[in-house]
Specification:
Layout lengths: L10 H4 L9 H11 L8 H40 L10 H20 L6 H26 L4 H21 L3 H21 L6 H55 L9 H18 L3 E8 L2 H8 L1 H18 L6 E6 L2 E7 L3 H18 L14 E8 L7 H17 L5 E3 L14
Parallel strand pairs: 4-5
Antiparallel strand pairs: 1-3, 1-4, 2-3
Helix pairs in contact: 2-8, 3-4, 4-5, 5-6, 5-7, 6-7, 6-8, 7-8, 10-11, 11-12
């Protein structure tokens, strides 16, 4: 995922399951090309879109609640300083109840802003009804008492409230339209009760015009956000595909396709790293060169397909004999394998060599043209070294190869040390 497309990191976990759908990229590209007026998604993407918006709401909830509180304090102080009689006369009970309701609402939302578990519920089920009730109270107050200055002041409050409603709830703009519609119906009922007493120009300007403009803006903001979300999804899908390809290429670059073991390049990197570590920590390093005996004869007898399968079985079997995570095995080339044993002395290397030879014997892959046994066997050359500044990696490889040559000249199906600190062991096939 690119940071420019998803700076908050919200999209990646949401579409992690969607990106595996092969049809997603084609679907998104079609919508982007069509640029429809009403942008609607299929259910899984729609769910992802609304979930992301809820997360965004949760991120800004604290800031928004603080701004709502500040706005309320400004309006309350302005009202108290300029119209103190509103809080003193029973004639303005509607306005007094509106301030009381707004006070409780702002305080409640400010508390919920610090309770993350409540954000989803507040976003979907609380804010819309609260805004509806507040708008209705403001509409009732302005229409029921159309007395010039007070009426104009109420209209300003209504406009502010509608702005907050539209741009706070545009995440769910259908509900916003419902809120405005319900408020209009309630206002109509109030007007009916009050004998349709209204200042027409003010009504059209404060309610109809402002609501129409704000809803139009909300609609186009909604459309833009949905198209932007499609681009984010497309970038996420592309990034996921590139990551998959890069992972595959990295695997190919460091894994032998036939045996499933590390390849020579990966082995060389590992050997260099373990060599440096052994020098720093003054620990012994052992290397096993392993060669499948008479493998050319096996290929000539059973065919290359059988030969490939033989190498695959032998390689995976040898891998299972390595008991430590630090030990590694790689296919060195052809029928040759290498095992690297960090922090392992000559005796420890012997134990591994014994396990390797016995494990291959247990496989008992038939090899009727073998000059050693009636099944596939292996010869092993061992070199153990304590690296220091006068030693080189190439010397370790040469010595292990020389030990392998000794094992072959000694009759194969055995292991030999480059410098033999202990007696070598030969495994003869018992018919």
């Amino acid at each position: 995922m690119t940071h420019s497309a998803d700076p908050d990191g919200l999209l990646e976990p949401l579409i992690s399951e969607l990106v595996t759908d092969s049809s997603l990229s084609h679907y998104v590209q079609n919508l982007i090309q069509q640029q429809p007026i009403l942008v609607r998604f299929r259910p899984d993407i729609e769910h992802c879109f609304h979930t992301k918006r809820t997360q965004e709401f949760s991120q800004i909830f604290r800031i928004a609640s603080a701004l709502w509180l500040l706005l309320f304090v400004v309006i309350f102080l302005g009202t108290y300083l300029n119209f103190p009689y509103i809080f003193q006369s029973n004639e303005y009970l509607i306005w007094q109840s509106t301030f009381a309701f707004t006070t409780l609402t702002v305080i409640g939302l400010s508390i919920c802003a610090y309770i993350p578990k409540s954000h989803f519920f507040v976003h979907h089920y609380i804010i819309a009804p609260l805004i509806t009730l507040l708008l209705y109270q403001l509409l009732v107050g302005s229409l029921a008492l159309p007395d010039g200055q007070m009426n104009i002041y109420a209209s300003y409050n209504i406009i502010l409230t509608m702005v907050i409603a539209i741009f706070s709830l545009r995440l769910l703009w259908q509900k916003t339209i419902l809120i405005i519609g319900c408020s209009a119906l309630m206002a109509g009922a109030t007007l009916f009760i009050n004998g349709w007493h209204i200042v027409t120009l003010q009504f059209l300007h404060a309610f109809v015009l402002v609501a129409t403009v704000l809803l139009s803006i909300a609609f186009f903001v909604e459309r833009r956000e949905r198209l932007s979300f499609l681009h984010e999804v497309l970038v996420a899908v592309t990034s996921h595909e590139l990551a998959r390809i890069n992972t595959h290429l990295a695997t190919i670059a460091r894994e032998d396709a036939l045996s499933g073991l590390a390849n020579r390049r990966a082995f060389d990197d590992c050997l260099e790293m373990e060599w440096d570590r052994a020098r720093r920590e003054e620990q012994p390093l052992s290397l096993l060169f392993i060669d499948v005996d008479h493998f050319k004869l096996y290929n000539d007898t059973y065919g290359h397909a059988a030969g490939d399968d033989c190498l695959r079985q032998v390689g995976q079997t040898m891998k299972k004999t390595l008991l430590r995570p630090a030990d590694s095995i790689a296919r060195y080339g052809g029928e040759e394998f290498v095992v690297l044993l960090p922090c392992t002395d000559a005796l420890g290397a012997e134990e591994v060599a014994e396990r390797v030879i016995r494990a291959i014997d247990v496989l008992a892959i038939p090899h009727k043209r073998s000059l050693v046994a009636f099944h596939v066997t292996a010869s092993i050359g061992i070199c153990t070294i304590m690296p220091h500044e006068h030693h080189t990696i190439s010397l370790l490889l040469e010595n292990a190869d020389a030990a392998l040559y000794k094992a072959k000249t000694a009759g194969r199906h055995c292991f030999k040390h480059y410098q033999e600190p202990t007696n070598s062991i030969k495994f003869n096939f018992q018919g």
